[in-house]
Structure formats: structure tokens, C-alpha cells
Inverse folding.
């Protein structure tokens, strides 16, 4: 029999997998729509100010 804690652990792992997959899809969607916006978000602030 499963203990309650192991069921909880499996549920958490499933949720984590689903969330990760969802975020990966969202990111790739965003990148296809507007890659520069996404890249700017992840650039260090110093790199952004250097281009001005």
C-alpha cells in the first residue's frame, strides 16, 4: 500500500512536471512572438545600460 506521504510526493512531482512543461511552452510561444522582449528581460542591467 502507498503511504499518504508517498502519494503526496507523487502528486507534487506531477504538478511540478506539468508546471515546467507549461512554462516551457509559454516561453517558446513568447519567443516566437517577440524574441527581443524576452531576451531583454534576461539581460543583465549593465548590458542594457551600456547600449544607451
Amino acid at each position: 500500500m502507498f503511504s499518504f506521504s508517498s502519494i503526496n510526493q507523487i502528486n507534487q512531482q506531477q504538478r511540478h512536471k506539468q508546471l515546467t512543461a507549461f512554462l516551457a511552452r509559454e516561453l517558446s510561444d513568447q519567443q516566437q512572438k517577440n524574441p527581443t522582449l524576452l531576451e531583454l528581460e534576461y539581460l543583465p542591467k549593465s548590458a542594457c545600460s551600456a547600449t544607451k
Observations:
- The radius of gyration is 19 Å.
- The chain has three helices and no strands.
- The CA atoms of residues 21 and 33 lie 19 Å apart.
- Helices lie at 4-33, 35-42, 45-51.
